[in-house]
């Protein structure tokens, strides 16, 4: 790939990421949430109580990020954290009643995010976009897996998103 094409591609991906996150922030703010927190709530709804390590794995976040996010969501009354009966070093997280009550509004905001994200597409049907973005996500994951120095550096020095869902996944199981 020539440098100009690389610049255009990287710029487009970065711009999409920034704008999508900004729209998510605007739609989640009335619910008292920040982007990434919704992913944790959806994971707990879909899977039930999880250890913080399991939640980190399921959401694609680093364990320290989950610890901080879980504390914030607990302080907001949206989840409960309890010590594992089997291992005092392990914390189990689950939705609180208030967290469960927030889910319909959260699902509505998540749907609005998707609808508004594609509302002005002129040439790409949403179904094809999902397919293409899923392909891109797979390519990025494979590249990250091959780049172990990148993975090590990002874990130790760079901030990590609070959660980025798999583009092909449904947030709530019906």
Characterization of the model:
The protein is mainly α and about 170 residues long. The protein has a single domain (about 5-155), classed as Arc Repressor Mutant, subunit A, CATH 1.10.10. Helices cover about 65% and strands about 5% of the residues. It is built from 7 helices and 3 strands. The protein has helices at about 5-30, 35-45, 50-60, 65-75, 95-120, 125-145, 150-155, and strands at about 50, 80-85, 90-95. It has a 3-stranded antiparallel beta sheet. Helix 1 packs across helix 5, helix 2 (about 35-45) packs across helix 5 and helix 3 packs across helix 4. The longest helix is centred in the N-terminal third of the chain and has 26 residues, at about 5-30. The chain is globular and about 55 Å long. The N and C termini lie far apart (about 45 Å). Mean pLDDT is about 85; it is low at about 150-174.
Note the topology.
Layout: H1 3-28, H2 37-47, E1 50-51, H3 52-59, H4 63-75, E2 79-83, E3 91-95, H5 97-118, H6 126-146, H7 148-156
Antiparallel strand pairs: 1-3, 2-3
| Largest sheet, spatial ordering of strands | 1-3-2
Instruction: Assign the CATH topology.
Output: Arc Repressor Mutant, subunit A
- Please give the domain count: 1
Continuous helix count: 7
Please identify which CATH superfamily we are dealing with.
Winged helix-like DNA-binding domain superfamily/Winged helix DNA-binding domain
């Amino acid at each position: 790939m020539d440098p100009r094409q690389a610049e255009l591609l990287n710029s487009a991906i970065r711009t999409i990421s920034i704008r999508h996150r900004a729209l998510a922030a605007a739609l989640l703010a009335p619910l008292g949430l920040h982007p990434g927190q919704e992913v944790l709530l959806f994971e707990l709804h879909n899977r039930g109580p999880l250890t913080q390590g399991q939640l980190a794995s399921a959401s694609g976040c680093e364990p320290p990020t989950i610890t901080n996010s879980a504390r914030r969501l607990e302080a907001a009354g949206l989840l409960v954290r309890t010590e594992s009966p089997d291992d005092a070093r392990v914390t189990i997280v689950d939705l609180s009643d208030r967290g469960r009550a927030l889910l319909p509004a959260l699902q509505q905001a998540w749907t609005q995010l998707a609808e508004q994200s594609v509302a002005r597409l002129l040439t790409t049907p949403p179904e094809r976009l999902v397919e293409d973005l899923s392909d891109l996500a797979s390519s990025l994951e494979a590249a990250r897996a091959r780049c172990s120095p990148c993975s090590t550096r990002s874990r130790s020095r760079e901030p990590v998103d609070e959660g980025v869902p798999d583009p092909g996944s449904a947030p709530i199981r019906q």
